[in-house]
């Protein structure tokens, strides 16, 4: 069996939805492995009752590389991340280690006897040649959710139905509503005081049975470097930061010749750019079709490049991707920028005069601040790919959470499911229960056997982490025994409104065809949907 833990100080990497949920859970976990989290008769947090007089974790710090909390729900509407031409020129823009290499720690930090702390840091200039943080959100003004608002919240955030059930959008919500709920949660429980902003974790190593974090805190053109020791670390950096683009012949030259004509869906902001243009969408997942619905009614032509007969994550997406008026092509073979803006496909066909290319090809799992030697954690390439990509999996974890080699390092946000925020909460709760020795993990051998069996069953790819709604219940049951005393999955995972999920797919499909057909206005669509009914 695994050892007892003596974890008092905890570092949380990231202050998005997963990191903030983890912070709240740990703050309300007691030394005896119980929780102070309590709910009133309305099922909402009973604030007067949750004060923790005997906390299990005496020091909790959340490090957020952005200047504000929220992760992807902290929008950068007018200043998106883009892949710079110098990275295209490497012809390795599909490699996460090229997109975001490990940051070199100043040599002074490693000098024996030196002890740079938050109060006495090493101060340098910012030497980044370009914005390599990839910290900006991919959210744009028009974005509305693809799952019900009920499941874009934890039990710590009250559920509010903002519009009638017969509105165009219900049970979906706008990005503004999600962000507001998260920021209100932080303010209500004064979580900001546990969070260090503009603080990027650049290295995590094990030193004398502690995790030593090296932090790069940016303030204007100055950087403050320091180290801090913790008993436990929870990585909550999410999966929507570093965009994946496939490496394709001619793409880097195309981007150089026609600036701003190639972009990942993370960089999309303004639908009006597609007016009277010929647009190619590479990939037809949720984000690709979300953008396509705005492009189709105003573009001169819309072409999609996708795997032949591919089944998307939801059935309606597969049909929408090949619906009337869309030109459907297989994978791209080559870009020919000097031949009338020509793009050739694997079947030998081609299109010309392409104005915009939108890649909806997923994101990288990437942890440049970790090393496999200390952690046993790595990102596996899927199938016969050259490098890890958007279809990869994170290896070395038990139940997507606990590092098998050293469970004092954990992850929150690796589990993929439409019930995303409940998964954050139950993950955080399981970590709290295990770290307070309320229960024990299986032996490392049993954990490895479980992982190996699952790899054989589903493959060494992204599916390893994915739990559709029907399977998420099984995952919850796997974690039930690890939760702190007093924590009940029924408080976390709302099974009474799962029909909202089914309804949300119908609403999303209906909205897609209304936008695609030009029957809904594009300008300020999120606000428009708030007040209009079916």
UniProtKB/TrEMBL annotation:
Entry's Gene Ontology molecular function annotations: flavin adenine dinucleotide binding; N,N-dimethylaniline monooxygenase activity; NADP binding
Keywords of the record: FAD, Flavoprotein, NADP, Oxidoreductase
Cofactor: FAD
Keyword Flavoprotein applies: yes
Keyword NAD applies: no
Superkingdom of origin: Eukaryota
Protein family (similarity comment): Belongs to the FMO family.
Descriptive protein name: Monooxygenase
Organism annotation: Zygosaccharomyces mellis
